[in-house]
């Protein structure tokens, strides 16, 4: 019998299996009709991998751009074709003259808005073909740089040619490419040897559960206690609350009139998303404003203030 759980599993992925394999195992474990994850981790990587079940898969599009925090280790002196320890060594360099201070300075220089070229061994596509498939056939193609933000790159330790650091970054950042780029700047080459994702938006390592924990919870009847409601997962999105008379319009996907609104944030910014909740509480939809705060104040009661992007409840 298929489950009707519309929730999120804050899963801890071990190193080894692919993210997609773990999602399928979670889906089978809880008998979900469908499941999807937020932010793919390479097989080598471990850490937080939020898995959305059934109806909760509809929030993935609003979670995919969340910032992430990683704990990483890199080895100086070798660059590889995959930019991690699973690849073939391309070049070696002398690392013994590299000091901790030099590493710290390179990390500091990389912080902020920057451009990053995606690695060939990645799921990025070129003319519809994943880059890793081309790379496996010995084909290298030009990749366009992608804008990313490195909020912080924190030096933690250096033992011999092994450097450990923590990076807080925007979605779409490749940490193995960051390791490679640091190796280039240091002039000795480098590749990633370990990666732990500690946080994805509101999901962190401390509150995550393993697949084994999930299976045990299902067996002892405590499964729902370990899962996260979609509304809780979306707490980072500002809330607008509708009056009871406006709830029917929302369930049918109609625009939200100003008169339907019971509460809105002080600042309203077009282009941002807002959680639409019932008067009595509970997530209904995600909406986008058509006006800013000043324009909102000038709207008449029957004028449209927000348009719906996604409705989560049935009429």
Automatic annotation (TrEMBL):
One of its GO terms (biological process) is tRNA pseudouridine synthesis. Its EC number is 5.4.99.25. Residues 176-230 form the tRNA pseudouridylate synthase B C-terminal domain. Keywords: Isomerase, tRNA processing. One of its GO terms (molecular function) is RNA binding. Gene3D superfamilies: Pseudouridine synthase, PUA domain. The keyword tRNA processing applies. InterPro entries: PsdUridine_synth_cat_dom_sf (IPR020103), PsdUridine_synth_N (IPR002501), PUA_sf (IPR036974), tRNA_psdUridine_synth_TruB (IPR014780), TruB_C (IPR032819). It holds the Pfam family TruB_N. Residues 30-175 form the Pseudouridine synthase II N-terminal domain. It catalyses: uridine(55) in tRNA = pseudouridine(55) in tRNA. It comes from the Bacteria. The active site is at 42 (nucleophile). NCBIfam families: TruB (TIGR00431). Belongs to the pseudouridine synthase TruB family. Type 1 subfamily. Responsible for synthesis of pseudouridine from uracil-55 in the psi GC loop of transfer RNAs. This is tRNA pseudouridine synthase B.
């Amino acid at each position: 019998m298929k489950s009707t759980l519309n929730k999120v599993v804050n899963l801890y992925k071990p190193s080894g299996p692919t993210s997609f394999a773990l999602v399928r195992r979670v889906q089978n474990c809880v008998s979900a009709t469908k499941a999807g994850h937020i932010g793919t981790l390479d097989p080598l990587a471990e850490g937080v991998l939020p898995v959305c079940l059934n109806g909760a898969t509809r929030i993935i599009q609003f979670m995919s751009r969340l910032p992430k925090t990683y704990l990483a280790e890199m080895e100086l002196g070798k660059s590889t074709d995959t930019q991690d320890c699973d690849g073939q060594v391309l070049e070696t360099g002398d690392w013994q003259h590299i000091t901790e201070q030099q590493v710290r300075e390179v990390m500091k220089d990389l912080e902020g808005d920057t451009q990053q070229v995606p690695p060939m061994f990645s799921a990025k596509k070129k003319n519809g073909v994943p880059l890793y498939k081309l790379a496996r056939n010995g084909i290298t193609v030009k990749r366009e740089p992608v804008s990313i933000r490195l909020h912080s790159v924190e030096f933690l330790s250096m033992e011999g040619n092994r450097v450990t650091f923590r990076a807080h970054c925007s979605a779409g950042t490749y940490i193995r490419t960051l390791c490679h780029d640091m190796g280039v700047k240091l002039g000795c080459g480098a590749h990633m040897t370990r990666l732990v994702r500690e946080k994805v938006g509101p999901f962190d390592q401390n509150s995550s559960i393993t697949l084994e924990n999930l299976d045990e919870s299902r067996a002892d009847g405590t499964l729902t206690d370990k899962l996260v409601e979609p509304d809780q997962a979306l707490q980072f999105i500002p809330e607008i609350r509708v009056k009871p008379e406006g709830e029917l319009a929302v369930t049918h996907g109609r625009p939200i009139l100003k008169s339907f609104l019971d509460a809105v944030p002080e600042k309203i910014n077009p282009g941002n998303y807002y959680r639409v909740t019932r008067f009595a509480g509970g997530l209904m939809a995600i909406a986008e404003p058509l006006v800013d705060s000043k324009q909102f104040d000038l709207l008449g009661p029957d004028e449209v203030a927000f348009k719906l992007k996604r409705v989560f409840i049935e009429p």
